[in-house]
Amino acid sequence: CRGGQAPNKLYVGAGAVYGFSANGGDPEKVNVIPWADFNYKNRFYGDALNGVGYNLILRDRLRAGVQVRPHFGGNADGMEGLDVPGLGADLAGYAFYRVGENFSLGGRLMHDVTGVSNGSSLMLSAGHQDITKVGLLQTLVYTRFGDRKTNQAYYGIDASEAAATGLSPYEVGSGPQNIGIAFLMMTPIKKHYAVATFINAERALGDV
Fold first, then answer.
1. Which of 2, 81, 117, 157 is most solvent-facing, going by the fewest CB within 10 Å?
2. What SS3 state is found at 112?
3. CB neighbours (10 Å) of residue 1?
4. What pLDDT is attached to residue 11?
5. Nearest 5°: phi and psi at 84?
């Protein structure tokens, strides 16, 4: 929701990540990724992972708006003939409500606008934010759902892929995709620098 940042800020940097590749490359190695993050008056914001967005509703407890978000591609693990979706983008609408002082509940409804899947998906989440001795800790528990087009594009195997790879055809319907938990620790270093540590784990659900 990007609500916790002070207005009119720009952050740039780079980092190393294992288990994820933004361009569909090998996730089983350490990849270096650039980073940029901006926030203008807590209305217009963006970063390298979440795309750009605008808070249409900006209240003490409620934030809602629209985003254009990157949808990162997968990895075929070197298997020829398996058509893994590449980098795409989703148009999203979101709403988050703060419960108490440190908890938030909300969700995001997304639709592919780049022809990668032409499908829609939903993410529901519960988050917690706390100030610790070493920095700001954000914890997020979430689950994702996809319609038939989205799930088939990312998890299914059509007839042509089955013929090319020797795998069995696999049709995926609409339903849950996964459940996950993520931790983000922001540790300040002097006045103008910080180190971010991010850990994310997911488990597949349903037919995926």
1. 81
2. strand
3. 23
4. 78
5. -95, 130
Q: What is the pLDDT along the chain (208 residues), one digit of tens a residue?
A: 444 445 678 878 777 777 666 655 666 778 777 778 899 999 999 988 889 999 999 999 999 999 999 988 766 566 778 887 888 999 999 999 999 989 999 999 999 999 999 999 999 999 999 999 999 999 999 999 999 999 999 889 999 889 988 889 999 999 999 999 999 999 998 877 888 888 999 999 987 7
Q: Going by C-beta distance under 8 Å and a sequence separation of 6 or more, which residues neighbour residue 166?
A: none
pTM over 0.90: no
The CA-atom distances, in angstroms, between 201 and each of 72, 176, 183 are 16, 16, 9
Is 104 in contact with 127 (CB distance < 8 Å)?
yes
In three-state secondary structure terms, 182 is strand
Residue 9 half-sphere exposure, CB side, CA atoms within 13 Å?
14
Angstrom distances, CA of residue 50 to CA of 15, 138, 156, 166? 16, 16, 25, 36
